[in-house]
Amino acid sequence: MTKQKTQLNVCGMIHIAVIVFFMFIFKCFPPFAKITPNGMEILGIFLGAVYGWCFYSLLWTSLMGILAFGFTKTFTMAQAFGLGFGDEFVIMVAGLLFIAAYINQSGSSMIIISWLAKRKTAEGRPWVFVALFLLGTLLISILTDVVLAAILMLPLYRAFAENVGIKPYDPLNSVFLTGILCASSLGDIAMPFKFMPIIFWKTFTSLTGIPVDFSKHVFIVFPAVVAVLLVYVLACKFIVRPDVSVLKNISKLECFNVQASKVQKINLTVIGLLLVSLILPSILPKDFIITKFFTHLGYAGTVFGFLLFMITFKVDGKSLISLQELAKDFDWAMLMLLVFFIPLATALPSDDAGIKSSISLFVQPILSGLPPYFFVVALILMVTLLTNFLNNMIVALIFVSILASLDLQAMGLNITVLAIMIMCSSVYAMFSPAASPVSAFIFSQKDLIRFKDHCLHGLKCCAVILIFSFTIVYWYLTIFM
Asked: For the whole model, what pTM was predicted?
């Protein structure tokens, strides 16, 4: 045992040394391509973070990364911490992490899972249950936020896995966890009112002068997104082929024959109202008083307003929630990860770093000399590969800029179709923790998954989705766009 502990300590020190090397020493190497000295600092911190998330600790690595930003020429220490902790999105997520901890502690997760397990369509059909679970994740992501969907669905899955008997490192864990990542990411592009499509289409129009019909996004892109998610489920069923025997009779398990208590009913109602409140500003007319109220509150204010209500409101003389109790299950690693990602997302794509222009310098010559269909295949492959190591928004905007600089009409290619393909493939981030905060969050569940096995699972499913994309999806978009 002592020898094993010594080996673990040695491995840990080696991992720390590698992280420190990238974050503090890598910047001393000469810049290459169009990367500037400032870009070398940011790139080193990013590479150190990727290594640390994969092989050491999500929390420790993120904290070290925030400190490392303070030693760059891009940020002071105060700016690095201020950007992360002062961001409204991070504040919102802090509140949601308390709510996720509550869902887990109160047993409310079992009420939700029991309802899903007892659907007649899923009875005796494990893969239908998987599809329903992931479609629920997709819906939450569409209506609210990609991170919120992952934060809410992970404790539901954990409660489900524990009660059904899915053991640690069982392949089914990767099926559900990668599925949560896939569904929540796809939800981020499913509708034109989401943040990423808004920025993407604005950039596309400003670069090309081509107006975008948002109704086509709803009626053409949305079905494609749902189809991609269902293809993920089929890939798991026929390619990964995990043992799903534990899912065959879940509706008959005693643990799912539960009735919600009075307190659980109240809490689920409050959480449902919270989700509705987060959705309302984007669907109601802007001049409605309710819209103005929640817009003024913002996401962060809305979440903490509901937390305040749940602390104040008492049932049988006891508050609905206790922050002291919830703090035991508060996910600090997720919070610190987001605090780290905010300055990273600011610095990585900046012109001052030169990383974005270096990617364009490498990619553009490769794409410009290819025959039309091979151009499409290469485009999707490059976007998918890069989005697993860089922010999807950055990757999507880089490639749509490259499209605008090429004479696609001479090649017989529809630039709008290719733009949609870029937007879709920019969220196929399934086999690397570096892609996004949600990806790093999912990969950090090391008590459920092994990094190597989970990465391999993501690669297999991503390969199937890619084949589906540059055959069926591309053909479908060519006909209808």
From this structure: 0.83
